User: Which sequence fits this backbone?
């Protein structure tokens, strides 16, 4: 597994370099493989460990509750009691997370912060799915959506289910067409929400 992860990390770094368009199908397939949900693994190691493995496999980072350091190396994931390591923050900047893997989020109870920046596979369906995770509706306080070109007003409106969301940063989202109306609807649904907007 460690060899697969090292290979995946190397491939992801190569993927970020400009490649001929003929390679896109291969990368899409590989990223879909990284996002496949292994329900037996979730049962065996718990939702936080399984989600950590998924996120790091896809190039994201996690921070565990009670720790200051971001975990970005799959092979460096801490071992020990499953109950000790609960995901508090997710930074999916330039990662390949996609809708297919979002079932990993279902059991997470302590996620307070999420950054989705430059995520080419994040789309409205992802935000709708994320917003329906009951435990995230309670725990998520801060969120950033930056340079996710497939996100539209519909995806942003789904965030109104995150009833404890306090801060939302929105920047460089070309798919959002009615920004003022959408933001106003979010503020009406979530009166305590502070929206930082840079969509011009």
Assistant:
């Amino acid at each position: 597994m460690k060899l697969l992860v090292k290979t995946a990390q190397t491939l992801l770094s190569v993927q970020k370099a400009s490649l001929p368009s003929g390679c896109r199908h291969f990368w899409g397939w590989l990223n879909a493989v990284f996002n496949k949900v292994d329900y037996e693994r979730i049962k065996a190691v718990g939702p936080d460990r399984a989600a950590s493995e998924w996120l790091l496999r896809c190039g994201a980072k996690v921070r565990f509750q009670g720790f200051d350091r971001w975990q970005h190396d799959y092979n460096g994931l801490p071992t020990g009691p499953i109950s000790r390591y609960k995901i508090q923050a997710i930074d999916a900047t330039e990662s390949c997370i996609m809708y297919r893997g979002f079932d990993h989020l279902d059991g997470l109870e302590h996620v307070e912060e999420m950054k989705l920046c430059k995520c080419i596979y994040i789309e409205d369906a992802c935000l709708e799915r994320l917003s329906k995770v009951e435990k995230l509706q309670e725990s998520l306080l801060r969120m950033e959506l930056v340079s996710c070109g497939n996100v539209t007003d519909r995806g942003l409106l789904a965030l109104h289910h995150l009833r404890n969301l306090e801060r939302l940063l929105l920047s460089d989202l070309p798919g959002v067409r009615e920004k003022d109306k959408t933001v106003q609807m979010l503020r009406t649904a979530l009166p305590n929400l502070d929206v930082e907007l840079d969509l011009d």
